[in-house]
Amino acid sequence: MILVGSADAAQERAVAADTSRVAKDADAKVTELASSSTDKRAQRSFFSSFKSFFPFKTSDVPNEKLLSSVKVFPNPIVDQISLSYRLDKQSTVSIKVMDALGNEVMTLLNQELDSGPQSHVFETNNKLTNGFYFIRVSAGSETVVKRISVL
To answer: Whole-structure pTM over 0.85, yes or no?
Structure first.
């Protein structure tokens, strides 16, 4: 009995030693993964420190638009043009009506406007004959063109 008990105890010690070796291996892998992620973080911060050395400027906001949400209604137009848009900063706005060949037919607006939502109504007074035209809205260096039809 003592021999059997000794054999069982020796076998239990061997299993315990084997599981402690597995636990040590797992701890080593976790430590290795943690150090590699720290190395990656160190690399990122190392390269990000060179951001100020580049001769070009990267914008934090990808789509900085001065002129947005341009809408012309009703379309087709009978005797008045309603126009709405949004300005992100104060600027000079030009609104013109162009014919199908790109010739300027009439200037509806050309003035400095504050930022924010804008809305205008223009009377055409039968100055536009039936057909297709383009409304060109320009603010700063941006231009938006919308097609309209006149009845």
So the answer is: no
The CB density around residue 54, as the number of other CB atoms within 10 Å, is 8
Residue 97: Cβ-neighbour burial (10 angstroms; 0-12, 13-18, 19+): buried
Query: Range of 29's domain?
Result: 2-53
Judged by average pLDDT, the poorest of 19-28, 45-54, 97-106, 113-122 is 19-28
Q: What number of CA atoms fall less than 13 Å from residue 11's CA on the CB side?
A: 6
Regarding whether 71 and 46 lie in a shared domain, the answer is no
Q: Can you tell me the mean pLDDT for 112-138? A: 94
- Whether the upstream peptide bond of residue 76 has omega within 30° of 0, thus cis, is yes
The count of domains in the chain is: 2
